[in-house]
Amino acid sequence: MSTFSAAQPNLLCDKSLINLFRGWPHPSLLTPNLIQSCTKRLLSNESNSSIALYYGPEEGDVRLRSEIARWLAGFYGGSYGPADEQGAVDRILISGGASQSLANILTAFTDPVLTRRIWIVAPAYVLACRSFEDAGFRGRLRAVREDAEGIDVENLLHEMEKVDQEENRNTQNEPLKHPNRSHYFRHVVYSVPTFSNPSTKTMSLSRRETLVRLARRFDALLVSDDVYDMLYWPATNNPAEPSSHLYAKALLPRLTDIDLALPYGPDLPCHEFGNTLSNGTFSKLLGPGLRTGWVEGSPASISALAETGATRSGGAPSHFTACVIAEGLVSGDVQAHVRLLRRTYAIRWRTTVDAIERLLVPLGVSLVDNVVQQERARENPVEYFAGGYFLWLQLPKGITASNMSEKCRLQNLIVAPGDMFEVPGENEKAEHIFKHMIRICFAWEDYEALTEGIERLASALEGSIKELQSV
Questions:
Q1: Please, which residues have CB within 8 angstroms of residue 280's CB and are 6 or more apart in sequence?
Q2: Angle made by CA atoms 449, 450, 453, in degrees to the nearest 5
Q3: pLDDT for 79
Q4: Exposed e or buried b for every residue in 324-361, given b needs 16+ CB within 10 A?
Q5: Which ranges in 46-84 belong to alpha helices (H)?
Q6: CB neighbours (10 Å) of residue 380?
Q7: pLDDT category of residue 3 using cuts at 50, 70 and 90
Q8: What is the DSSP string of 106-152?
Q9: pLDDT for 2
Q10: pLDDT digits over 442-468, tens only?
Q11: Residue 238 has what pLDDT?
């Protein structure tokens, strides 16, 4: 079965299609009215409309960079947060979304000769793997397993040491690319640290700090898709309840915040590019068709990203859309919509989890814990939060995800089998086989379809269990 054959509907089934595979926002959560009003305001201002319709500066629209810097300084501010809004502007570049940004990062900071391996947290956001292969790293992608705290740093350390011992014998030190345009890292580590896709796990603070130190030691660039950081809510029976402090701050600092604040040890080299880049996107917040996002890192890394050939030639991608979104941040419409998303996804998450606990858990399904524990306030010292788009389920022993996805298709239900989230070339390693896992998304379907989808999944699972028992 090909990677995405499980996503095809069953045209012979008379039941309506329920797609728990698709990782898109529900149509009601798109923002046509917001985009329309922001575009109208932009085009009614002669100065701003002229800026929007010309080529944009390589780093992106100045007004959007400033508004994002102010927004992120408030959200991530704290012991690891940006020092000030103005200083943060120089750390931000406007991108064409997280996927385009990843390709641009690989263009600027990797070289097929000098960059030794691409390390990807597994289970992986598998669509990113094609970007690594396109950049010249086919056959050099390596999976790094997760544990309860996220990426297994001890395993990564061990594997990096082995690679460096082998590669240090190679006398080829000249880059294939231009030698003076950037810093070409020896390793790249790709992850989704918060509410990861598909495992839904969140990397702990101590693990994030350790990973940054490891990156400095091994000359590694940590590329993180921080696309779900703002989409979180209380993991309670009434998750959409208002709360005085809810959503005011990020649950955890990003890797790039830690890299900025964490002192260097005397035995670790320090260079101006830092060791982290954070991908953000408006795709999960306003609509994926906007194809606009941002990347944050050191000022030197932002300058290097702005100097890649495509950006030098055409300016920042999605420039007009960036100017439209800037209007929405200035007015506060974007921030208000994000608050609406949190309340809405909270109810969707609770609806789906309740159905899983009622229908699937009694059949032996385990829901992988995606709850983040936080110490928040003296009067309420520990709170629990969920977030993201997905839930990661472990099937009963003896039931494979590929078998389940096929049985679900007979009922016109589409789910994502765990096998498809393996890093290419790594599927033979026992610790990276996810054949008993499935991923479901609670962001796309209507509320009623979420519950009915879990009912169909339970029906398919009951049939598989009966077949297994009859053997």
A1: 68, 72, 98, 226, 227, 229, 293, 294, 295, 296
A2: 75
A3: 57
A4: bbbbbbbeebbbebbeebbebbbebbbbbbebbeebbe
A5: 46-53, 62-76
A6: 10
A7: very low
A8: HHHH--TTT--EEEEEES--THHHHHHIIIIITT-EEEEEEETTEE-
A9: 42
A10: 999 999 999 999 999 999 999 999 988
A11: 73
Cβ atoms of 194 and 229 closer than 8 Å: yes
Q: Give the total residue count for the chain.
A: 471
Helices assigned H by DSSP within 110-204: 127-132, 153-167
| Tokens 């590694």, residue located | 220
> How is residue 318 written in tokens?
């999605």
Q: Left if phi > 0, otherwise alpha if psi is -120 to 50, otherwise beta: which for 123?
A: beta
User: Rounded CA gap, 258 and 213, in Å?
Assistant: 10
For residue 184 the two structure tokens come to 């070409």
> Per-residue pLDDT averaged across 327-351, rounded?
96
Q: How far apart are CA 196 and CA 146, in angstroms?
A: 11
pTM for this entry = 0.93
DSSP 271: -
Q: Tell me, what's the pLDDT at 6?
A: 54
- Rounded to the nearest angstrom, the gap between the alpha carbon of residue 369 and the centroid of all alpha carbons in its chain is 18
Angle at the Cα of 40 (from 38 to 46), degrees rounded to 5? Answer: 110
- What does the alpha-carbon distance between residue 352 and residue 348 come to, in Å, rounded to a whole number? 6
The token duo for 69 is: 């810097």
